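Task card 7
Instruction: Convert sequence to structure tokens.
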Amino acid sequence: MTGYDIHETISFLRERVTRAPHAILVLGSGLGGLADEIEDAVRIPFEKIPGFPRRTQELAGHAGALVAGRWNGVEVATMQGRFHLYEGWRPQDVALPIRALAALGAEVMLLTNAAGGVRPGMTPGDLMIIADHINLMGTNPLIGAVVPGEQRFPDMSDPYDAGFRRIAEEVALELRIPVSQGVYAGLLGPSYETPAEIRMLARLGADAVGMSTVPEVIVARALGIRCFGISCITNLAAGLGGTHLSHDEVMEVGARVRDRLAALVRGVLPRIAGSNLPSEA
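Output:
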């Protein structure tokens, strides 16, 4: 994709997504089924969108489509699946969908992901509101020439909006859905971490670990988009659970907690989309 003109991507999407999205939804492993609830949906496979990376494989849980429409009263553009650095894409490739959807008018972004639990006491099926992240991917999507409309040195002191997190905790309390807040560590993958690496992450202050989300949030913040993230703890990280890790386990737990996660997102999305709360640290 070297030298690709993002304006072709934006023009293509504008012709098909005729109502400007207010929110971007990025749905992680096993969670893409939430997009099936979108009304008046326009569904575009990733491979049909100019400039989008061409998927190297069909990974279970990542459907690979952009779905735009109205969900629970909010105009959304939903990434049903996402691109990962471990597939061999550049950070700029992973970030391109966020840049394109921001150009269509999106102002907020809600992300979900599957993650391994690092903090003692976590169990598969827990939901963690992401309060902060640690970028251990070894790269950054803002490397290179400044993209028009983006900050060169965006402030990352509140990457996951504090006002949105308060709203989410209120919604969770109303729905009686247990949640916690924590720090997400983003690693390159695709191998799972070793027990020694998990011990290191715990000492660094990580509560959960995964292989996504960080590049998307960095570029969103450079664009001024307010972000909210939820990790579904699908397994205990290496050395903590006494079992071998597998993607099948990620998928099984993701399916088991789908209803709770969907209820939380349904409650949170309209409140953060319509929120006029200032972003606070």
